[in-house]
Amino acid sequence: MADLQIPEDFCHNDVEPKGKTSHSDGENFHYIWGDGRTDGAAFSNDDVKAAYEERGEEQVPLGIHGTSVAVDWDSCVAAGSCMSVCPVQTFQWYRTEQDVPAADVLGATFEGTGLTEQDERLDYTDKSQPIREHDCTVCMACQEICPEGAIRIESANQEWHEKAAGTYVIMKSGSENPHAHD
Ligand code: SF4
Fold first, then answer.
1. What is the pTM of this model?
2. Which residue CA neighbors atom 6 of ligand 1 most closely?
């Protein structure tokens, strides 16, 4: 397994998300954290650099997309390994739904209709978007297979997603688990 690029505490304590990307179901969304970095693998990958050049689009730092399923878009080189192993199609190629610069997904709403097979990226500027973060079964397969260590799976980070959203509920003994999904 490649070394994980996302620090364990990237969303903890007083860190505020930079923004979010919503799912059109009106219920789910995932946060985007940090200003990004230019020393991630995407900035030295020849395929990624060539694809940006071909588009005439500037490559800019993008940050971490998702909280319990966190993808460092500055390390994502569009290998698509995560898509090949995810049993619940958590990820989609964002550009196959909306072909916009990656910085523009901040605040955008996606329907989750993007392509989800490993080699269906639009081109190497595409990114693995955790549009169905809420469906993750924590199997860990994507974290283990990502060649760049761009993914960190941490189900306990759901707490920080909820705190940022203002929906966090402290569990009392004997009470129903408010974090449980149907
Ligand atoms: S941990 Fe498993 S279920 Fe969750 S996003 Fe990764 S591959 Fe999909």
1. 0.93
2. 142
Q: Are 24 and 98 in contact (CB under 8 A)?
A: no
Summary mean pLDDT of the chain = 95
* Joined tokens for residue 10: 């990237």
Q: Please state, in angstroms and as integers, the Cα–Cα distance from residue 85 to each residue in 41, 118, 143, 144, 157, following that order.
A: 21, 9, 10, 10, 22
Instruction: Give residue-wise pLDDT tens across range 159-174.
Output: 999 999 999 988 766 6
Residue spans per domain, the chain: 19-162
Q: What is the number of the ligand 1 atom nearest to the C-alpha of 130?
A: 5
The band of 139, judged by pLDDT with boundaries at 50, 70 and 90, is very high
**CATH fold label, 19-162:** Alpha-Beta Plaits (3.30.70)
For residue 142, the CA-to-ligand 1 centroid distance in Å is 6
Residue 140 in contact with ligand 1 by CB distance below 6 A: yes
CB 90 less than 6 A from any atom of ligand 1: yes
- The residue whose CA is least distant from atom 7 of ligand 1 is 86
